[in-house]
Design goal:
Number of domains: 1
Structural class: alpha/beta
CATH architecture: 2-Layer Sandwich
Number of helices: 3
CATH class: Alpha Beta
Strand content: 5-15%
Shape: elongated
Length: 205
């Protein structure tokens, strides 16, 4: 007795493919949205972690990071982590470009890691004290990664010191999903400082 070989007909295969395609079309936007939401949540968490490390640094040393561990007045303008340089809109005169201009390649920029992971301000300047009442007691972080979109995190530490004579807001900041700096670098605290567009951040002052 001959046994017939079982198999799918061409029509059945086409139907299965069509059903799979329909399900993929329905589910893809939901999956993509969940991935996007998880990246935003991760960035919000990471700015909080960096902000907490900065606060611990301040509690131990009684001051914010400087270019020289022995000089309270050797101020930095910005700290940043690893990652790609964000873009900015040249047509908007809101000093958002300063998040790019003052990164660690600048004379008054430095890496978070030199202050929060290593005791090595400006990669070779005088270290912070490790004895006495106010001392570096790190590391305050185990690592700093780029944000979920590959850009660096940054902090406008310059404004902890009121260099212009007026109180300005300080943020730990990410340019967000569009990888563009939309937040004004210098914002007077009397004018309700805000993050621009889809930027993500934590205000420290």
């Amino acid at each position: 007795m001959r046994i017939k070989n079982a198999g799918f007909t061409l029509i059945e295969v086409i139907v299965v493919i069509a059903v799979v395609a329909i399900l993929a079309a329905i589910l893809t936007p939901t999956v993509v949205k969940n991935i996007d939401d998880s990246k935003v949540a991760r960035a919000k968490n990471e700015v909080q972690v960096i902000g907490a490390a900065m606060t611990s640094f301040y509690k131990d040393l009684g001051r914010w990071p400087t270019s020289n561990g022995n000089d309270l007045n050797d101020r930095l303008r910005m700290l940043n982590g690893p990652g790609n340089t964000p873009s900015y809109d040249n047509s908007v005169n809101n000093h958002a470009s300063w998040w790019v201009a003052w990164r660690n390649t600048s004379t008054v920029g430095d890496l978070f890691s030199h202050h929060l992971i290593e005791n090595n301000p400006k990669n070779g300047a005088t270290d912070y004290p490790t004895t006495g009442e106010y001392k570096w007691h790190g590391p305050y972080l185990s690592e700093i990664k780029p944000d979920p979109w590959g850009s660096y995190y940054a902090c406008n530490v310059w404004y902890f010191y009121y260099p212009s004579g007026q109180p300005n807001a300080v943020f730990v900041w990410s340019p967000g999903p569009d990888r563009q700096a939309d937040t004004q670098f210098d914002q007077d605290t009397t004018a309700s400082p805000t993050l621009g567009d889809d930027d993500i951040g934590m205000r420290l002052k």
